[in-house]
Each structure stands twice: as C-alpha cells, then as structure tokens.
Design brief:
mainly alpha; 2 domains
C-alpha cells in the first residue's frame, strides 16, 4: 500500500493532467451538435496517424527481449491503421452525399 501511495505522490501532477483531460474532453465532445459529430470524428480518426508513427517508434526502440513492448506496439499500429482507414472511409462517404448525381 505504501508503494502505491508513494507512486501517487511522485506522479501527482501527471494524475491531475489526466483527470483534467478527461473532464475537458467530455465537455468538448458533449457540446458538439449531433450534425457535426460524424465529420468531427471522421476527421479526428484520420488525424490519428500520429499514433501509428509513435507506435512504430516505440517498436523500433524496444529491445529484442521486450516482448510486451513489441506486442503493444504492433497492436497500436494495427488499431491506429484501422482508425485512420475508417476515418477516410467515413469522410469519403460523407463527401459522396454532396456530389451531384449523374
């Protein structure tokens, strides 16, 4: 128990920042009108290519024996790629709705 309390005391600022991010994120997303929610999310998903780059860097810097880092990096690359592709697909479908029919 003392180790947990010591870790919390050491990382107190980081815990505050994460809690603040959670509350600000909830407020920002909660105030987005439903009409703008799909374009906002598809654009945000497309921008998440940064996650893929970060995961590739983590996998590149991981030691050969650190299987956990390699597995988590691979999952981050896989899920980040799905997120980016999904964002582009949804955005493309939305743009198709505004094109003139032939």
């Amino acid at each position: 128990m003392n180790q947990i309390l010591q870790w919390i005391a050491t990382h107190q600022e980081m815990i505050y920042v994460v809690a603040l991010m959670i509350f600000v994120g909830i407020e920002v997303i909660g105030r987005v009108p439903s009409v703008l929610h799909t374009p906002l999310m598809s654009g945000a998903n497309a921008i998440h290519g940064v996650v893929i780059i970060g995961a590739i860097i983590v996998m590149g810097k991981a030691e050969g024996g650190n299987v956990l880092a390699l597995i988590l990096g691979f999952l981050a690359v896989l899920l980040g790629t799905l997120n980016v592709v999904g964002g582009f697909v949804v955005t493309d479908r939305m743009l198709e709705m505004f094109k003139k029919k032939k």
